[in-house]
């Protein structure tokens, strides 16, 4: 393709001829006089217009577009807030046309009001800047956008407000909560909070006082829920009945005794001598309710080490207050507090105090708390050994304490497993212990306890990985544990190893309760996660980690602390116990939030019948009646007591709903033949006196299976009937 000379400038331009042309340019026609005048005037008119358009484009690009998006996002939440009863229609996009138009008008109106607010902010900011350099409109709007970034998450809040969403889309709820918390963290980072010296006294005393009030209010509400749940007869022998009987036996001289367990002690399943130290509290009122209140108050007291961990890590009492509230709102804490009573739940505040003492190098407090942690349960030495390993790896100047911690943990584990408990295996799968192998039935194929799990992991690691990765409930469990803390414990450079035992125990388990926040097993993880989050923030604030970050580190820490509080509050709203929702469960079932009148009447009848039974009598109780009468020296679970070697059985208090069909039939037959004497009956609850001592050894007759007629098999060479 050739080139030709343009007639307007004499330059060669691309042409259509085959060769280049060098013809001199043609002289243009002389312009008209008026046209020349217009050309002379055009630059003076175009320059301001072009400059204004460019400024407008730059404003829209740098600040205006985001301001409009934020305004629309904020406005989108107005109509749903005024029509909360129609959120389900909104979720499925089933609103009638007129209502959709109305919602759009409300949203646009709210967006317009928000934009008017932007205008007011710009005018005020520019008026204040008269004494010095006045900020540009773009700068003011951009700064306002950064402070209102949380508004982008309002549509997600509308989604979270739909009541059953936490039940059907729990993973999405955690993601929305994390996104909104991140936006809040960014907004708080952008806000400037001037420090005032005259507030020094307020900054020192107000946060701990406010946290104490909040802890009292949360503990009061959780205690109320726990007592209502127990009063509605929704607690069981396992585990509230077990521990109530342990406390009763301990205060009466039989330390750690439990007549509900084979052999009359709790050593078969767990060894938890810390209960002996706490048994004096049981003298206040020797009832199961005392244990429920004790557990809630004990866990609520964990707000104190949470406050100290954050305060000393970042040097702010208000950050300590926010972190303490994050702990009190933590959904997993509510599950541990309200699922009956378990000794392992006592580890939470103790472990946080232990980590606080370690981080502050207060080894006097450390060696005071470490023995208490070991006394919680026989498997806690597996966790404290990891604490000792943390000292060896990250505190070389104090490695002596690390070696002593490892030695103390190993010695205590060997002593308890070798001399006290029946089984030497960590899962009690040897020597007649109460085996917990069913927790890991996918990993344990030969019932050899922890050795079988280690064999499966080492010999077939791919299978072990699939057990962790393919189950969505395990992913949800991890999200619910770490999203309230914005994942910061995973960023802590030292101490992450302390969570290894808990994560391994829960992630390799087959039973869903082990990796659910409604049960007590999260106690192996969450105390150390709360201890590590402030350490991660400290390394960020001092520049020890990621020194290349361009952000203001103090403001970054403030934003992340606020984000943790918001994230924990949102997840507590949808998964916790403080607000009614469809997802929270204390154990296997949802809790009662209001008094059940019928259940209260049934419980009154049960307590009346228990008062008729002599205290020293041998009494058997069914599953849900156990915690109502477990404060006795000789109580047993029915029908499991048939396997126990007990001298006699005097009374039986049974509830039909706790028994299977053959057992109920067996009791009615025994009443008719005179082996049992019916003393009282109401709503399927019976107090029976054992007349024939041989009744204890009788088992219910097996129910004959109903015969089913088998269809004759077709011969292999039979042809299907022809189609008509």
Summary, kept brief:
The protein is mainly alpha-helical. The chain is 55% helix and 4% strand.
Radius of gyration: 35 Å
First-last Cα distance: 76 Å
> Quick check: average pLDDT?
86
The spatial strand order of the largest sheet comes to 4-3-5-7-6
Annotation, overall tally of beta strands? 7
Describe this structure in words.
Helix 14 packs parallel to helix 25 and helix 24 runs antiparallel to helix 25. The longest helix has 43 residues. The protein has a five-stranded mixed sheet with strand order 4-3-5-7-6, sandwiched between helices. It starts with a strand and ends in a 34-residue tail after the last strand. The chain is built from 27 helices and seven strands. The chain has 724 residues and is mostly helical.
Entry keywords:
724 residues; mainly alpha; five-stranded mixed sheet; 27 helices; disordered C terminus
SSE arrangement:
Blueprint: E1 3-5, E2 12-14, H1 33-75, H2 78-82, H3 87-91, H4 97-128, H5 137-147, H6 154-160, H7 165-168, H8 170-190, H9 200-231, H10 237-251, H11 274-278, H12 288-300, H13 303-314, H14 317-329, H15 331-338, H16 347-359, H17 363-376, H18 381-394, H19 399-420, H20 450-459, H21 461-469, H22 472-482, H23 500-507, H24 526-542, H25 553-575, H26 597-612, E3 619-621, E4 635-637, E5 651-655, H27 661-672, E6 676-682, E7 685-690
Parallel strand pairs: 3-4, 3-5
Antiparallel strand pairs: 1-2, 5-7, 6-7
């Amino acid at each position: 393709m050739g080139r030709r000379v343009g007639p307007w400038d004499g330059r060669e331009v691309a042409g259509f001829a085959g060769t280049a042309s060098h013809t001199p340019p043609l002289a243009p026609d002389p312009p008209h006089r008026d046209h020349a005048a217009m050309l002379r005037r055009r630059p003076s008119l175009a320059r301001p217009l072009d400059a204004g358009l460019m400024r407008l484009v730059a404003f829209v690009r740098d600040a205006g577009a985001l301001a409009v998006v934020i305004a629309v996002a904020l406005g989108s939440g107005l109509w749903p807030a005024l029509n909360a009863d129609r959120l389900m229609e909104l979720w499925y996009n089933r609103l009638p046309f007129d209502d959709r138009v109305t919602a759009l008008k409300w949203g646009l109106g709210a967006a317009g009001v928000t934009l008017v607010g932007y205008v007011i902010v710009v005018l005020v900011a520019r008026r204040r800047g008269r004494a010095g350099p006045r900020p540009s409109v773009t700068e003011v709007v951009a700064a306002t956008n950064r402070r209102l970034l949380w508004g982008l998450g309002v549509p997600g809040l509308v989604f979270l407000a739909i009541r059953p969403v936490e039940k059907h889309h729990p993973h999405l709820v955690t993601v929305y909560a994390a996104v909104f918390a991140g936006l809040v963290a960014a907004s708080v980072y952008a806000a400037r909070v001037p420090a005032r010296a005259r507030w020094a006294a307020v900054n020192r005393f107000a946060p701990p006082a406010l946290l104490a009030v909040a802890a009292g209010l949360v503990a009061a509400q959780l205690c109320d829920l726990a007592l209502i749940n127990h009063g509605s007869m929704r607690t069981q022998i396992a585990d509230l009945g077990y521990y109530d009987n342990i406390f009763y036996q301990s205060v009466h001289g039989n330390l750690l005794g439990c007549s509900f367990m084979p052999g009359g002690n709790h050593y078969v399943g767990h060894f938890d001598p810390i209960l002996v130290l706490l048994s004096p509290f049981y003298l206040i009122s020797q009832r199961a309710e005392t244990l429920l209140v004790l557990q809630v108050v004990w866990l609520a007291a964990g707000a104190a080490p949470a406050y100290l961990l954050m305060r000393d890590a970042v040097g702010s009492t208000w950050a300590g207050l926010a972190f303490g509230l994050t702990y009190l709102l933590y959904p997993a804490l509510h599950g541990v507090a309200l699922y009956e009573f378990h000794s392992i739940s006592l580890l939470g505040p103790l472990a946080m105090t232990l980590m606080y003492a370690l981080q502050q190098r207060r080894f006097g407090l450390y060696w005071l708390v470490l023995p208490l942690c070991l006394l919680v349960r026989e498997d806690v030495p597996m966790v404290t050994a990891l604490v000792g390993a943390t000292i060896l790896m990250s505190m070389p100047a104090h490695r002596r304490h690390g070696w002593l911690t490892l030695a103390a943990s190993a010695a205590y584990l060997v002593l308890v497993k070798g001399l006290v408990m029946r089984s030497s295996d960590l899962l009690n799968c040897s020597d007649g212990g109460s085996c917990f192998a069913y927790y890991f039935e996918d990993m344990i194929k030969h019932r050899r306890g922890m050795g079988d799990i280690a064999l499966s992991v080492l010999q077939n690691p791919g299978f072990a990985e699939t057990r962790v990765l393919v189950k969505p409930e395990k992913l949800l469990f991890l999200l619910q544990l770490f999203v309230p803390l914005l994942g910061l414990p995973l960023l802590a450079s030292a101490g992450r190893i302390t969570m290894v035992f808990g994560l391994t125990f829960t992630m390799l388990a087959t039973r869903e309760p082990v990796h659910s926040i409604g049960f007590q097993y999260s106690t192996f993880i969450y105390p150390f996660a709360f201890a590590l989050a402030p350490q991660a923030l400290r390394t960020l604030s001092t520049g020890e980690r990621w020194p290349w970050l361009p952000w203001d580190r103090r403001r970054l820490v403030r934003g992340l602390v606020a984000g943790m509080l918001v994230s924990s509050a949102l997840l507590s709203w949808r998964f916790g116990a403080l607000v009614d929702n469809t997802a929270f469960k204390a154990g296997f079932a949802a809790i009662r939030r209001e008094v059940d009148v019928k259940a209260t009447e049934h419980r009154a009848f049960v307590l009346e019948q228990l008062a008729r039974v002599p205290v020293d009598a041998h009494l058997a109780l069914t599953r849900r009646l156990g915690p109502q009468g477990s404060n006795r020296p000789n109580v047993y679970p029915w029908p499991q007591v048939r396997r126990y070697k007990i001298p006699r059985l005097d009374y039986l208090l049974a509830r039909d709903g706790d028994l299977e069909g053959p057992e109920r039939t067996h009791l009615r037959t025994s009443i008719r033949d005179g082996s049992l004497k019916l003393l009282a009956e109401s709503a399927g609850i019976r107090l029976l006196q054992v007349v024939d001592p041989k009744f204890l050894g009788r088992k219910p007759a097996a129910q004959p299976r109903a015969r089913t007629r088998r269809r004759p098999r077709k011969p292999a060479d039979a042809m299907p009937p022809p189609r008509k």
